[in-house]
Design a protein that fits this description.
The protein is built from ten helices and 14 strands. With 308 residues, the chain is of the alpha/beta class. It has a six-stranded mixed sheet, with helices on both faces. It is globular, with a radius of gyration of 22 Å. The chain binds flavin-adenine dinucleotide.
Length: 308
């Protein structure tokens, strides 16, 4: 059987934010033949497309050292500090570019509206990105997808199953065309895996593509995987859709059990401001005692305090 072949200088696997940015950056750096493939659709099936799009960008007036300390402490002093510093330092540049490309963020007067970020005392988040009639991750992914289309070849429904190695160097990938079932061969001078993490998120919010394929592909090539403890942020139950609770609980929201009583103070010194896994563990203990489900998020008091 004749195998369909494709040659490129850089093969990017995965077309969420990471893959799309990589394609744009590679083209800007002068890489000629950039190919981007995705087992779902290009830029439109990923977590990036589905997420709320609240993103952390350190602005020039922010205290970078404080932000860095927040991240390092929140990750139990285990994260790679120079990498976190570089991401934060360059984040303002990325924000400027998104704005140049037409993304607008929520504003309060003429200042960006920035909200507290879960578990990080100083770090603030830009919220509600929009582009024309699109909001959130869909707006950002749509814009990146459009930019990545300039000069990069894209192909959807291509499931990369294996990497190819020659003399210790990755030289391409084997894939399956998910529509025809035909095998595909991608030869490339370099392969970039932007296939995201694997986590409980794969079971909810329709992010079924988040299955950690990149880790397996890299591991099989002899790559040493590290920092796997950060693989899944906000470990919790797939039944607890916690999106938005970070802000709501910081603004005075309270979790209530099935009887309508607050319970977090009994379980954790940070009460309702505790991390997701602590909230979920507390709920599990309340279930054992017959006090739930359901659990409620009560914004009544916070509303009265702020609005009167
Ligand atoms: C509901 C939800 C809300 C969120 N809200 C926020 C938020 O407000 N702010 C924030 O910062 N983060 C948020 N996140 C997290 C954020 O969306 C992700 O961290 C980010 O989008 C990851 O980008 P990525 O490019 O690494 O991965 P993804 O966007 O997931 O892209 C990975 C791509 O790789 C493809 N792929 C995987 N395996 C293969 C393979 N073998 N072959 C070919 N293609 C493959 C997938 O199909 C997918 O398109 C949220 C996530 C979810 C699910």
């Amino acid at each position: 059987m004749e195998i369909e072949r494709h040659d490129s200088d850089l093969l990017i696997v995965g077309s969420g934010y990471a893959g799309l940015w990589a394609a744009i950056a590679a083209r800007e750096a002068g890489v000629e033949r950039v190919a981007i493939v995705d087992k779902a659709s290009i830029g439109m099936s990923s977590q990036s497309r589905l997420c709320a799009g609240a993103t952390i960008h350190c602005l020039p007036e922010d205290d970078l050292d404080r932000w860095l300390r927040d991240f390092v402490e929140a990750n139990g002093f285990l994260s790679r500090q120079p990498l976190v510093a570089e991401i934060l330092e360059t984040s303002h540049r990325r924000l400027r570019r998104l704005e140049e490309w037409g993304i607008a963020y929520a504003k309060l007067g003429d200042r960006p509206l920035r909200l507290p970020s879960r578990g990080l005392p100083h770090v603030l988040m830009m919220v509600r990105p929009t582009f024309r009639d699109r909001v959130g991750g869909s707006a950002v992914a749509g814009v990146l997808r459009r930019r990545a289309a300039i000069g990069a070849r894209r192909r959807a429904r291509v499931f990369v199953t294996d990497l190819l190695q020659r003399r210790g160097q990755v030289v391409g990938a084997i894939a399956i065309d998910r529509v025809t079932g035909a095998p595909l061969l991608f030869r490339a001078r370099a392969v970039l895996l932007a296939t995201a993490d694997c986590s409980f998120r794969g079971h909810y919010a329709c992010t079924y593509a988040t299955t950690g394929d990149g880790y397996r592909l890299a591991f099989e090539q002899g790559v040493r995987l590290s920092n796997m403890e950060f693989l899944c942020m906000n470990t919790g139950s797939p039944h607890f859709g916690f999106e938005g609770t970070g802000i709501a609980l910081k603004w005075g929201g309270r979790l209530l059990d099935a009887r309508g009583e607050p319970f977090m103070a009994r379980h954790h010194p940070d009460g309702d401001a505790a991390e997701i896994h602590e909230l979920v563990a507390a709920m599990a203990r309340e279930v054992e005692q017959g006090h739930g489900p359901p659990f409620y998020l009560d914004m009544g008091e916070a509303w009265r305090e702020r609005v009167g």
